[in-house]
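Summarise what follows for lecture notes:
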Amino acid sequence: MAPALAWSWRNALHGVVLALPAGVASISDPRTGLALAVGVLPAAALGVASSRRQRLMGLLVGLIAAVSLLVGSVVAGIPILAVVTIFALCVGVAVLTADRSRRLAMPILMLGVPLVGVGLSLDSVVTGLAAVGLIVAGSAYAVVISLLWPGRAPIARAPRPDVTRATMLAYGIQIGLAGSIGAAIGFAIGVDHPGWACAAALMVSRPSHEVLVTRGWGRAVSVLVGALLACGVAAMRPPVWLFALLLVLVLALGTAMAGSRWYVFPFFSTYVVLSMLLLEDTATPAHWFVERVGLTLLGVGLALAAALIVPRVAKVVEGRGRG
């Protein structure tokens, strides 16, 4: 079992190299630096894989992330379509994971579908395309850089247990309800980022209730602390060199702790995202803090509620079907 808070100097050094373009760009233009930081976030969350062959998979992960954000930005302009899309993707992809031959189904379910929720917060398809370019470029850069590290024998992973289509259908409905309701609430109350609650619900959701609870607490606390740090830094208005140094440090720490069992990465991603929003001066730090933390708590609450209700309803329906 992975340690609660993992640390790897190997990953930390990789994180520094990942962050260098963002740090250098921040000295002349913090907005550009933060945009580049967003581009390498998926790679930072992965760390450096053991074998060079596994590292090449980082580009595939980046492509899944980029396409998912684009899909979210495409449907975001029509709230009803966005809500239906989230539910349909959750159910459809979850069912596909029951088939072992569908190897991409699991990463799409765990990463891609939640990032479709993130894409609902992008204000246009043009913004979505820009995000695609940043993430693809960031992932490609990360893969090339990672190949400089010596390779190691691949870490053996426990085989994924077999699951039935019925089980995954119920799970897909569970997360589909949590994510789509989160998106619907976001659109209904008119927040600036209607996809944040949806993304939080889907990011923490897992078939294991114990893991769901752990990830729920982890994301809530991580987002809260990350938001506090971002708002605190913005309030101090540090010189650009210090801002750039903090950005490099955050990405390095996030990469170094990529193997943690506790869900701490949202601390680092929240700092980057909120820092970008705070630089735009379109709203007060308190506004962004309340929206980010509030929608995260809403999403976690929806995920927990769906996990309590849907499996029980599924058992009742299954029992009546057998009867």
Remarks:
- Residues 108 and 239 are 40 Å apart (CA to CA).
- The chain has a mean pLDDT of 90.
- Residues 285-322 form the longest helix (38 residues).
